Amino acid sequence: MTAADQALQMTRLAAEAAVEKKGRDLVAFDVSEQLAITDVFLVVTGTSDRQVGAIVDAITESMRDELGLSPARREGDKENRWVLLDYLDIVIHVQHEEERVYYALERLWADCPEIDLEIEEQE
């Protein structure tokens, strides 16, 4: 089983929105084989609390405007250090760079296939 086409579309749309707000080090994993609750984890880094908030806002606006979707769950946006957006098919983690290094989510999901986001990060 691999991530559904809709999950891939959502992931790429969220990644585009994150990159527009200068999100960095984007990585997406197909976790559909390991988890029954979601297909994709997308991880994005922001360099400040303010940027994490801007990335989260851009993603939620893009998902709402383009696909008519709102997150089923949203956590961590008071501190903007690690914000989780749960869209059921995909779970998005927007992390401050310090949290990204400390928690290293990529290590936890390293055995899962990485998804080509088909985007270029901005410098």
Automatic annotation (TrEMBL):
InterPro entries associated with the record: Iojap/RsfS/C7orf30, NT_sf
CC annotations in GO: cytoplasm
Keyword Repressor attributed: yes
Acyltransferase listed as a keyword: no
Protein keywords: Cytoplasm, Repressor, Translation regulation
GO biological process: cytosolic ribosome assembly; negative regulation of ribosome biogenesis; negative regulation of translation
Subunit record text: Interacts with ribosomal protein uL14 (rplN).
Family: Belongs to the Iojap/RsfS family.
Name of the molecule in the record: Ribosomal silencing factor RsfS
Species the sequence originates in: Propioniferax innocua
